[in-house]
Amino acid sequence: MVELNDQRVLQDVGIYRYHHPLEDAAAYKDRLEAVNARIDEYVKTGRAVLASDMFTFDGSLAKGRKMTADFSKLMLRAYNAEADNCVRSLRSGNVRTAVARLERAMAAIERLGAIMEMRVNPDYHQVRVEELELTADFQMKVQEERERAREERAELKEQQRVERELAAEREKLDKERAHYLGVLEALRAKGDDAAVAELEGRLHDIDAAIEANDYRAANIRAGYIYVISNVGALGPNVVKIGMTRRLEPRDRVRELGDASVPFLYDTHALFFSEDAITLENELHKAFADRRVNHVNARREFFFATPAEVRELLLEKVGGLLEFNEKPEAPEYFQSCGLWPAFDA
Q1: 106 pLDDT band (50/70/90 cuts)?
Q2: 217 Rama class: left (phi>0) / alpha (psi -120 to 50) / beta
Q3: How many Å apart are CA 279 and CA 148, to the nearest integer?
Q4: Is the pLDDT of residue 49 over 60?
Q5: Distance between the two ends of the chain, CA-based, in angstroms?
Q6: pLDDT for the residue numbered 227
Q7: Strand order in the sheet with 266-273
Q8: What is the pLDDT of residues 232-275, one digit of tens each?
Q9: Domain definitions of the chain by residue range
């Protein structure tokens, strides 16, 4: 029996394990070309199928050998057709299913050619299995590289957005400071000491804001850790733990709740850290065994409650200025009663 349910096979296998670990997709492509050359060599030299050379037909050894050679070509064509079909239909790393199909074809050829002691050369079969494994590895590596490139573009875009925000904020603060300095000189000339003192306090606040803005621009590791949930899209007890360098971290949370999910995210915690990157990594490691996606570690969703994340944050950073344990999720709760009923 051959299991043909690809989803069940993948669930049984678990996380994809590379059969031939190589550096990148280009390396897999080169290895596949070498394997294809070996396949061609087996076929050209007649070593792909093994058969007896002592089979006679109509009392003639010569006729028997010709019949064996013709039958070998036919069997090899059938086997190669099945192997090529397995390669073409390979997807999502379902190697086990493809290899099982190929082994079934190999066994059928051996049964049909038993009288001539005919069988597919095990070495040739192993090369074709290696081709399947490398093809699956290549497909997975290409998928990983595309996902990584997409995420790197998204990170670069986010970084550029942060840089623009910080530059715009600095420009605004500089203009505001220059304005207040002009007004301050005028007030001093008038001798309005009370107004001067008030304005100097405002200038002090602006200078502090400029200093903080410059620190954020210079220190790429500084940012906000956020803990958010989306009970309507992800269900209860699932949180996303991430970080952003935005001046206003809630802008990032609002972006995550775009048209790709039916409801907005709820924010449970926001915490500014001078080394948000390290803190985020520590939180992810602490909940590593509770990841929703165990294949792509860049997906930051975890089976955890906001309270569990809060306890860990308290251990690492102390008091939190803001924390909400229960999600408000007004759109979700207001929508539930209006959903149509579906039969189970």
Answers
A1: very high
A2: alpha
A3: 22
A4: yes
A5: 31
A6: 94
A7: 266-273, 223-229, 238-244, 301-303
A8: 999 999 999 999 988 888 998 998 988 788 999 999 988 888 89
A9: 19-146, 160-218, 223-336
Work out the widest C-alpha separation in the chain, in whole angstroms: 129
Question: Measured on CA atoms in the order 125, 127, 128, 134, is the torsion positive or negative?
Answer: positive
Helix axes 276-286, 306-317, angle to 10 degrees: 130
For position 143, what pLDDT does the model report? 87
Q: State which amino acid sits at residue 14.
A: G
pTM of the model: 0.65
Across the range 280-300, mean pLDDT stands at 90
- Per the CB < 8 A criterion, the answer to whether 147 and 296 are in contact is yes
Distance CA(334)–CA(85), nearest Å, equals: 51
- 51 Cβ neighbours under 8 A, 6+ residues apart: 68, 71, 72, 113, 116, 117, 118, 119
Q: Is the predicted pLDDT of residue 152 greater than 90, yes or no?
A: no
Using the predicted structure, report yes or no on whether residue 88 has a pLDDT greater than 60: yes
- Considering Cα of 247, then 250, then 253, then 254, what sign does the dihedral take? negative
Burial of 147 (0-12, 13-18, 19+ CB in 10 A): middle
pLDDT at residue 325, rounded to an integer? 87
pLDDT at position 321, please?
A: 60
Give me 16's structure tokens. Answer: 């994809």
